[in-house]
Every structure is written in C-alpha cells, then in structure tokens.
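== Folding task for one protein ==

=== Format: two labelled lines per protein ===

==== Paired sequence and structure tokens ====
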Amino acid sequence: MEIVYMQIVMVLTLLVECLLGSQSTAVQEINLQQPPADPEPEFEGTIQNVTFPAGREAVLTCSVKNLGRYKVGWLRASDQTVLALQGRVVTHNSRISVVHEDMRTWRLRIRQLRESDRGCYMCQINASPMKKQIGCIDVQVPPDIINEESSADIAVQEGEDATIVCRAVGHPTPRVTWKREDGEYMLLRKPQSRELIRVEAYNGTHLHLQKLERRQMGAYLCIASNDVPPAVSKRVSLSVHFAPSVRPTSQLLGAPLGSDVQLECSVEASPMPVSYWLKGGRVLPSNFAGSINSNYDQGQSRPEMLLDGPKYGITEERHGFRTNMRLVVRFFSPNDVGTYHCASSNSLGRADGTMRLYEIKIHPGGVQTSDDQLNIIGGLAEAARGRGNSSANSLVPGGSSLHFALVFAVLSMLLSLTSTFR
C-alpha cells in the first residue's frame, strides 16, 4: 500500500509541474505580444511668479511633456476653483482665457487685473496620482489716501500741541511723506527741547507738532507713494491763532507842508484781524467801540477814524499772518500835525501803535534866522511832549527815534545854511 501511495503522489506532482510550466510559458508568450506602457506625463521647468500693476494683463505659463491621453487644468489654489480644462474656460469670468501653444505649453491669461486676482494658481495633470505645479500673481495697486481717516484743516492756539494724520492704502504699502506746500523748510521741535529745527520733509502717517509757534503756520502736503504711479497727495491747512501785535515803523515823523506823508505799521495776527487808522486822542486799552460812551464823555478826546478818500490813502498788504498797513496823508497841512494810531483787532485781542507827525519848516532862499532854527527845534520838542508817557507802552523805544529826528533836523538846517552861503 505504501508503494502504491508513493506512486500516486509522484504522478500528481508531475501533473502540477506540467500545468505550471505550461502556464508560465503562456504568460511569457502574452508578455512578448503586449506593447510597452506609455511614459508618464511630466512638467517641464516651473511656473514663474509674476508681478503686474492693476489694470494690466498677467500670464502664467505651464509646460507639460508626454501628456498623452491625460488633460491639463487650471485652478485657483486658495479655494480649488476650476478655471479651465484643456483649452476650454469653465469659469464665468470673461477676463480669463487659456492659450495652448506647440502642443505642450498652456498659458493662463488674466486681463484687466484687479486686486482680487492677487494669489496663486495651480496647473494640474489628471494622472494617478495627480500632478500639479503652482505659480503666483502679485497685483500692484497705486496709493490712495483715505480722507475719512485723515486730518482736515485744523486751527489751534499758539503754544498748544497738534497732530495731523494721513492714512493711505495700496500695494505695496505706501510711504507717507510730509512737506510744506510753499517749499519752505518745516520747523519741528526737538524732543524734550524748546529748539525748532529745520527739516525738508518728515516721514510717517502722524505729524506731531508740539508747542506750536506762528512760524509753523501754513499748508502741509501729505504725499503717498509706493513706486506704482501715480503718487497722490492731500493738502492740510494748519492755522495758529494768536492776538494781534502792532509795530510802527517809526514813532516820530516830520514832513514839510504840501508834501505827501506815508505812515506804516506792521501787524501780526491770526485769525485775520480788522485793522484801521485813528487820529488824535488816546486809544483806550479795551475795545474802542464799546468804550466811547463810558469814557470819552468824561473829558477825554475822541480819536477820529480815518477813511480812504481824497485826503487819506489807506492800503494793506497781507502775507500770511503778517499785514503791512499804510496811511498816506496827502498835501500835508498844519491841521495834519498830531498823533496817529494804527489799530488791529481779532477774536483773541486788540493792539495798536502810535506815531507823532510834525511839521518841518523849510524856507527856500535866504539865510535861516535863529528864529527859524528855534522853530525846527521847538517843533521837535512839541512832538516829544505830545508823546507824553506813551513811550513806555510803545513797542519801539522812543529815545532812539527822537534822537534820530533831532539829528535829521540839525542836518537839514546845516544843509540849508550851506546852500545859502554858496
């Protein structure tokens, strides 16, 4: 029995070997008849990132070799939105198109770029596993100033602090530069110091101005730029308010009869003051108009307000917060001798300056007598007495003006005598 069993096992083993051998031969024959598999698709190079200003056209290029039966698609990488498949655009965006060139190049074009187009895009091959490349578009946006978040024209009292703000948007982030509109240097205070330094420009969205002085008044330009044209600017007017100050150019002025005499005063004030000329009397330190009845009825002389006309020529020249007041007294006569006041007032206060106008007697021909000399010196003395104690309240020391007038009178007398002796 054992022998019979062994023979059966051997016969079965031979049959299995024969079957396996024939199957292997069949497989080899089949493998010899099957063609080789297609090569896998591959990307050629990489997609170059690009940067363009808004409104221009951006192009991303994707190159593929061995594409075969596979397809190429373009997607927005951030949300996987399909934009195009092969040469067909599937998104509802008329600004997007796809161009297929030389059978292996696929170009994604986006016209009239918007800021919302900024981001990355995916070139994808539907192989298994899926293959992809990513390229990004940076959209540059020119600067724009946000008026709602920037300062309007401002006014502050002299000595107070002020901050003017200019906010701008754009891509890249804009630089903000401050300059004076008139081209002059800006005056900025050093930190922890009273000193003002001159600078051509200041960089930053916030311009801090500490303890403002009247010299810093003016129009400032906020200029926003980010190398994407055009740059933009905004004008901010800064007003520094202070009470008027008045300075006569001369406190004592002489002229011969029949001539035209010009009197001048320099005024500094902000806001713009109301300026006028008065003759005679004494100007009260308080508001002149409100004090007429209560003070001048007590025996004080009432100043006369001068108006532009045939006798008086009144003009003003304004340069920022500075004003030049001019009064021309035509055909100077003895009635014009006396005291003149240039006055100026605004909402913060009032100031005035006083000048004394006197006659210089000139005798044509002949030798000037001692009486004539006494008349000139007497006129000077009268003018000096007419000033009274007002020199203590004047802005320009009266002594120097009086000495100048005396010297002028003596020189005039000497010149007259010299011409007579010739």
Observations:
- Helices lie at 2-33, 292-295, 370-387, 398-421.
- Residues 2-33 form the longest helix (32 residues).
